[in-house]
Amino acid sequence: MEKLGDDMERREGLIALRQIKGIGWHTIDKMLKMDWSPDQELTTELLDFLSTSKISKKSIEFLRGNWSPTFIRQVNEELKQRKIITQTLWDEDYPDLLREIAQPPWVLYMKGDPALLTDYLLAVVGTRRPTAYGIKTTRFLCEEIVASGWGVVSGMAYGIDVEAHRTVLKAAGKTIAVLGTGVDVIYPKNHRFIYEELIQHGTVISEMPLGTQPHPGLFPQRNRIISGLCMGTVIVEAAERSGSLITANYSMEQGREVFAIPGQVGNEQSQGTLRLIQQGAKCVTNIEDILEEYPYIPRQYQVKHKGGAEISVWNEKEQKVLQCVTTEPQQITIIIERLKEEMLIGEIHQTLLSLQLKGDIIQLPGSYYVRK
């Protein structure tokens, strides 16, 4: 087999391969399992294998007709010219949580800040036809998420999704929109303004090739990425057959937390969330109900300075101590034992006092400490 280049061209080859019409996740998986690499030419053996593997003749024709070093260069040059960032499953900066799911995207296309993908993230999704209660709750919850230093992932759809993005952007928080179209295709079309805002102050991502137009079958696939990027998924409002429940199911399959906002018993848009709660999703009414499920993650609340820059309220020592103090009372001897390799005993006592003065923890009788 003739090599087309080094590891960089292997990566660029994968990106170009994803741009060929009809070559989706499963086809790429089959090709790679044949010990073929995207820095190689196509072989008769590979094409014969694909033709007997339920890959359509059209897809194979598109592959045969496009695959060349010239095509690979053209695809990657176009992406650079259009300022579209790419991450492949082989890249070190590919999001670790997303890498863990059953079918992680081979390629992610994005516009905006790629660093947000590795932040602490929560998915906030819901019906496209929210009630006034649903909108109010979305705003309240997303403001609390921003204040806690976490980011919000949603799908830029009508209703709860776009309200979540709007609220986070207004609060100068971190938000990611996962599209079911190409990253260069705005859908719904009248969400152009929010799309532009997301590119400027957040991130828009997709696994779909550039130019991919909306199609009903693409959105369930998109939902696995929404949940896959996140520590947990919050369903605000959802009818009994809402697409948001697909995201909740993916979240459960991926071993992530599922949270549901309780709604009125007789309201159609609350039936999905109420059913989730019956099935074991955690009923939440505020951010504390969510954050207490992640006691191992330091709460890095953010504050604004006059210049607009953000800094953490807690210093490094305070963050270490807070990782040991949970919503269950912890005796000081246990805290010291956990931190003795990192901090002096005097530093631990001083830091505990500092956190008490800030109102973050409470000292109980018997030298027990608990998160406030």
Automatic annotation (TrEMBL):
Q: Which residues cross the membrane?
A: none
All copies of the Smf/DprA SLOG domain together span 88-294
One GO biological-process annotation of the entry reads: DNA-mediated transformation
The entry's family comment says: Belongs to the DprA/Smf family.
| Protein name (database record) | DNA-protecting protein DprA
**Which organism does this sequence originate in?**
Thermoflavimicrobium daqui
Q: What is the lineage of its organism?
A: Bacteria, Bacillati, Bacillota, Bacilli, Bacillales
